[in-house]
Amino acid sequence: MTKYASFYQRSIEDRDGFWAEQADLIDWQVKPSQICDYSKPPFAHWFVGGTTNLCHNAVDRHLKDRADQPALIYVSTETGQEITYSFAQLCDEVQRMAAILQSLGVKQGDRVLIYMPMIAEAAFAMLACVRIGAIHSVVFGGFASHSLATRIDDASPVLIISADAGSRGGKVVPYKPLLDEAISLSQHKPSAVLMVDRGLSAFTSVPGLDYAYAELRQQHMNAKVACVWLDSAHPSYTLYTSGTTGKPKGVQRDTGGYTVALAASMQHIFEGQAGQVYFSTSDIGWVVGHSYIIYGPLLAGMATLMYEGLPTRPHGGVWWELVEKYKVTHMFSAPTAVRVLKKQDPALLSAYDISSLKALYLAGEPLDEPTAQWIADGLGKPIIDNYWQTETGWPILTVANGVQKMPSKFGSPGVPMYGFNVKLLSDSTGEELTGAQEKGVVVIEGPLPPGCLQTLWGDDERFVKTYWQSVPGKLVYSTFDWGVRDEDGYFYILGRTDDVINVAGHRLGTREIEESISSHPNVAEVAVVGVADALKGQVAMAFVVAKDTSALGDANARLKLEGEIMKLVDSQLGAVARPSRVLFLSLLPKTRSGKLLRRAIQAVCEKRDPGDLTTIDDPTPLQQIKQQLDV
Ligand code: ATP
Ligand code: MG
After folding, report:
1. Which numbered atom of ligand 1 lies nearest the CA of 247?
2. Ligand 2 centroid vs 249 CA: distance in angstroms?
3. Are 471 and 511 in the same domain?
4. Residue 391 Cα, ligand 1 centroid: separation in angstroms?
5. Rg (CA), the chain
6. In the structure, what pLDDT confidence band is assigned to residue 612 with cuts at 50, 70 and 90?
7. Could you tell me if 468 and 518 lie in one domain?
């Protein structure tokens, strides 16, 4: 048995022994008396009786050894601001913020909604909340009033922390009017709003409700606010899923389990060491931002680089310039960002000294082989895919290079991570599939490991119904993703279970067709969606963003490329997988987090109402689809 295989096996078979060891990676005020209480499945209670604090482990714990080392490196190419906070400085800022929260009436267990751009104060706010046991709920700054209002009602925060504005591509995006509008729309009203004024967009304060951060910070300049020792099960935060497939769910996370899970992942998966620099290009509004911009790197004593800006501004090599400048060792991004870079000059990838960089981790959506190969060749660094969900908080599938070096296989995120008892089930019979190349639903046997969601905020019933009751007669957690395993135990994610299409009795993951189409040299990006068809039940339709669009104004050129793409799918997957149409778009319809809005595409193709589009980044491609299909 390989080293990783036995590590993994122990995590499943000697669960409590395994996690008791991992628990030693963090500081506890009181050590847990029991590792996992799974007496009320599917609710798992990790590290029973233990008390700890996430902020203590992320910040204060490091003061002894590295008070003056960088903790938070803040870079904005939108405002030109660039500041490095040492652990000691970060600790001071967090205590000031914690004192402000207390002065505004925030108590342990209260919710604080954070609606902020990528500014250092957002990190202070998150850390200050967990320091005093307030539950933060970060709402992505790109969301408009309606989305924000539904989240205010769900989280019912005592306090909202916001800023005058964000900035995107040099354009100021005012937040305050959106926030005011959201508060007027919501049923729940916060008792206070704390405003960080960046001086980007003038706003009017609401008397009696709004407080100015700069003023209060001045008042609490020398504040000392101790970390509150919290029960392991005390919620650290709630976070809404992207809502790609429907109404967002308020994922609730504990304190002890999450702290242990992240500390363990920093060691076993990311091989992070104190003093190194972690640069995640995500946003604090998403789960990657929580786990690997804020908490994970800091828990490991690393500096985290927090970036506001685009990957292409002021130039397409800006990320690599930052890697050189700050000697970044670990980078975490998403395939969608790599596809943006792919449209730039590849020479930019080698224009800077990136010798400090050990690996680039990518997650959030399927990483197709050509994209992985392109960035691997361009950077000359390992590219490591990892598959997880807002719900799990850390990777389900990847390679644990910190345990044993394992090759990544492009197209596959990797193997199950320790603690995740991953299985494939037949979606027709619910039987477990153990053979290679058998396609099924990716599920996880309970208990979910530490760090995963405890429940959905305020809705235990929805938690059980949504995730644990999709396979009749079996209590397993469904990821709602469709996958397959190869002979070496590497998994391939074939798409969401909703996206499996059934053409003439053949079950096909849209991902397989996308993979095939993206191997065409003129395809920059592709989405394949199953669309209802009166004759065949369902057909696949492909939406392609071409690399070279110069000829595509001409109908014949479009037809030619469409024909080539169809032939390619025929030869690789067989005629049954061939898309019925290939449409060319200038970009794909995505959420602000870069996830494809398949449901919306499908709805437009089927002449239905695309539903709530508040999370869409740019509606142009949906209009392009409408025009081309003449619907
Ligand atoms: P919602 O659940 O609200 O519809 P969402 O599922 O898009 O939103 P996230 O939790 O951000 O919200 O995304 C997790 C999903 O993203 C996974 O279930 C999977 O479909 C996809 N995903 C994430 N990482 C990968 C990866 N490395 N490879 C393939 N798919 C991935
Ligand atoms: Mg999901």
Report:
1. 3
2. 9
3. no
4. 10
5. 24
6. confident
7. no
Q: Is the pLDDT of residue 6 over 90?
A: yes
Question: 3-state DSSP call for residue 159?
Answer: strand
420 φ, ψ (degrees, to nearest 5): -95, 105
In angstroms, rounded to a whole number, what is the distance separating the alpha carbons of residues 190 and 540?
A: 47
pLDDT digits (tens, 9 = 90+) for 471-527: 888 999 999 999 999 999 999 999 888 788 877 777 788 888 998 999 999 999 999
Pocket test for ligand 1, best of 388, 398, 443 (most atoms within 8 A of CB): 388
Q: In a mutational test of the pocket of ligand 1, which residue from 139, 140, 151, 242 has the highest number of ligand atoms less than 8 Å from its CB?
A: 242
Gap from CA of 536 to ligand 2 centroid (Å): 29
Same domain, 422 and 547: no
CATH number at residue 10: 3.40.50.12780
Segment 559-604, tens digit of pLDDT: 999 999 999 999 888 888 899 999 999 999 998 878 888 889 999 9
What distance in angstroms lies between residue 106's CA and the mean position of ligand 1's atoms? 33
Looking at the chain, the whole-number percentage of residues with pLDDT higher than 70 is: 99
As for how many domains the chain has, the answer is 2
The per-residue pLDDT for 246 is: 64
Residues 448, 551, single domain; the answer is: no
Domain limits at 620? 504-630
Q: Which residue has the tokens 């946003």?
A: 283
Question: Is 468 in the same domain as 570?
Answer: no
Q: Which atom of ligand 1 is found nearest the CA of 286?
A: 11
Residues 561 and 437 in one domain: no
Q: The tokens of 517 are what?
A: 């189409």
**CA-based end-to-end distance of the chain:** 57
Residue 318 lies in a domain: no
Confidence of residue 550 (pLDDT cuts 50, 70, 90): confident
412 and 515 both lie in a single domain: no
CA atoms within 13 A on the CB side of 379: 28
Q: Is the CB of 366 under 6 A from ligand 1?
A: yes
Q: Are residues 442 and 547 in the same domain?
A: no
Cα 628 to chain centroid distance, Å, stands at 33
End residue of a domain, out of 425, 445, 480:
480
Amino acid 573: pLDDT:
85
Assigned domain for 225 exists = yes
DSSP code of 25? T
Q: Is the CB of 595 under 6 A from ligand 1?
A: yes
Nearest to 364 by CA among 272, 291, 312: 291
Nearest CA to ligand 1 atom 1: 243
Q: How far is CA 558 from the centre of its chain?
A: 35
CA of 499 to the centre of ligand 1 (A): 13
Q: Going by CA atoms, what residue is nearest to atom 18 of ligand 1?
A: 389
